[in-house]
């Protein structure tokens, strides 16, 4: 169920484990390319279900990376588009 919801948002679970205290840690990866109009909404939906989101910015020319950072996501930026479709 959780994985289906994340997939609809374009996310993939990249780590799922329990920490030392028994709490479930879920890290999701989210590719983005010029998503400044939608990244805030997507992150709010995804962050309800996961511990951390790592956004991979595929050479965007807009402010989606800055928005994702302000919303608490870790952002990895590619300088140039690397065609991440199908991640």
In words, what does this structure look like?
The chain is of the alpha/beta class and 87 residues long. The protein has one domain (2-78). The chain is built from three helices and four strands. It has helices at residues 2-8, 39-47, 64-70; strands at residues 12-18, 24-32, 52-58, 74-78. The chain has a four-stranded mixed β-sheet, covered by helices on one side. β2, α2 and β3 (52-58) form a beta-alpha-beta unit. The mean pLDDT is 89.
Walk me through the topology.
Elements: H1 2-8, E1 12-18, E2 24-32, H2 39-47, E3 52-58, H3 64-70, E4 74-78
Parallel strand pairs: 2-3, 3-4
Antiparallel strand pairs: 1-2
Brief digest:
With 87 residues, this protein is α/β, with parallel strands linked by helices. The chain has helices spanning 2-8, 39-47, 64-70; strands at residues 12-18, 24-32, 52-58, 74-78. The protein is 26% helix and 32% strand.
Tell me the radius of gyration. Answer: 13 Å
Major beta sheet summary: 4 strands, mixed
What is the end-to-end distance?
19 Å
Please tell me the overall pLDDT: 89
Kindly state the percentage of residues in helix.
25-40%
Spatial strand order of the main sheet: 1-2-3-4
**Unreliable runs:** none
> What letter string, H or E per element, gives the SSE order?
HEEHEHE
* Number of structural domains: 1
Main structural class? alpha/beta
Overall outline: elongated
**How many H/I helices?**
3
- Strand fraction equals 25-35%
Total E-strand runs? 4
């Amino acid at each position: 169920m959780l994985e289906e919801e994340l997939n609809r948002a374009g996310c993939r679970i990249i780590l799922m484990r329990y920490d030392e205290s028994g709490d479930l840690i879920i890290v999701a990866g989210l590719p983005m390319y010029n998503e400044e109009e939608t990244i805030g909404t997507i992150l709010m939906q995804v962050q309800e279900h996961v511990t951390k989101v790592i956004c991979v910015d595929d050479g965007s020319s807009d402010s989606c990376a800055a928005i994702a950072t302000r919303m608490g996501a870790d952002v990895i930026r590619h300088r140039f588009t690397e065609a991440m479709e199908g991640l």
